[in-house]
Amino acid sequence: MDALKSKKGFICDMDGVIYHGNELLPGAREFVEWMKAENKEFLFLTNNSQRSRHELQQKVERLGITVDAMFFYTTALATARFLATQKPGGTAYVIGDAGLTNALYEAGYHFDDVEPDYVVVGETRSYSFEKIQQAINLVLKGAKLVGTNPDLLCPTNAGPIPGCGSLIAPIEYATGRKAYFMGKPNPLMIRHALRCLTCGREETVFIGDQMETDIIAGINAEVDTVLVLSGVTQEADLVKYAYRPTYVVGGVGDIIKKTDQ
Q1: pTM score > 0.85 for this model?
Q2: Is 261 a residue whose pLDDT tops 50?
Q3: How many whole angstroms separate alpha carbon 29 and alpha carbon 237?
Q4: What single string gives the DSSP state of each residue in 154-213?
Q5: pLDDT band at 20; cut points 50, 70, 90
């Protein structure tokens, strides 16, 4: 664990690592304060595209963690960055919330519901038959299909709701086109996050709670990984996978306890 403590950069998934819904997980506040005190570089990462950096900052502040908005990186930002490198100044028809539309706009993208370069789908509650019909027609006319992440479900306090993977599925089935997903397990998400830090990947660790999204993304990005057992994956589940995380801990608070011993 001394090797983990000596890392200069920490990229942390959020739900299942820092909080569950609107409840802060044990040891999360202390872990963040430890990173600050030790002058670690850190970034919070989320596959959800609905909220902006400032909205995420406000959420964790309500839970008792105070950090600047620039310490957050979302799939909306990663998707916007990816599209800006693929086709600078392009156009998109978007099914998504403000976090996604704002990120695309700030990346120089314009919105077009007639002949866009891309159809981009993220998590949203403003989902309708008319929007799906429009998206299908645009993809059939030549627009490329992009999703912020392949998650089928999103956890909420009221129970799970359809994730981006579920929302985009009707468009894929109707057009016969497979979407390109930017979020985890795509390792590009981790590589984009690394560019927000000044330390290299050998000096950085990625902390997540799901083997099939977080840990495999970190492994494919060639970053050491920490699986916390405070979220989806439990220790008994590890035998199902051909790959393993670099470290396994009960929660982020255990990182401090074990490395301080």
Answers
A1: yes
A2: no
A3: 27
A4: E--TT--EE-HHHHHHHHHHHHT-PPEE-STTSHHHHHHHHTTSSS-GGGEEEEES-III
A5: confident
Q: Which tokens in the block code for residue 33? A: 């304060």
Q: Is 209 a catalytic residue?
A: no
Domains 2-47+184-260 and 77-181 share a fold: yes
Which residue among 15, 97, 117, 254 is the active-site one? 15
Query: Over 70: is that where the pLDDT of 259 sits?
Result: no
> What's the pLDDT at 91?
98
- What are the φ and ψ backbone dihedral angles of 69, each rounded to 5 degrees? -60, -25
Query: What is the crossing angle of helices 75-86 and 187-194, to 10°?
Result: 90
Let me know how long the chain is: 261
The band of 217, judged by pLDDT with boundaries at 50, 70 and 90, is very high
Query: Choosing from 13, 117, 209, 224, which is the catalytic residue?
Result: 13
Assess if CATH 3.40.50.1000 describes domain 77-181: yes
C-beta pairs of 80-88 under 8 Å, 24+ apart in sequence: 80/104, 80/106, 80/107, 80/109, 81/107, 81/192, 82/146, 82/182, 82/188, 82/192, 83/107, 83/109, 83/118, 83/120, 83/146, 84/108, 84/109, 87/117, 87/118
Average pLDDT over residues 63-73: 95
Query: Residue 63: which of 12, 99, 28, 17 has the closest Cα?
Result: 28
- If pLDDT is split at 50, 70 and 90, which confidence band does 183 have? very high
Q: Which two tokens stand for residue 231?
A: 């979220």
| Domain covering 2-47+184-260 in this structure, CATH number | 3.40.50.1000
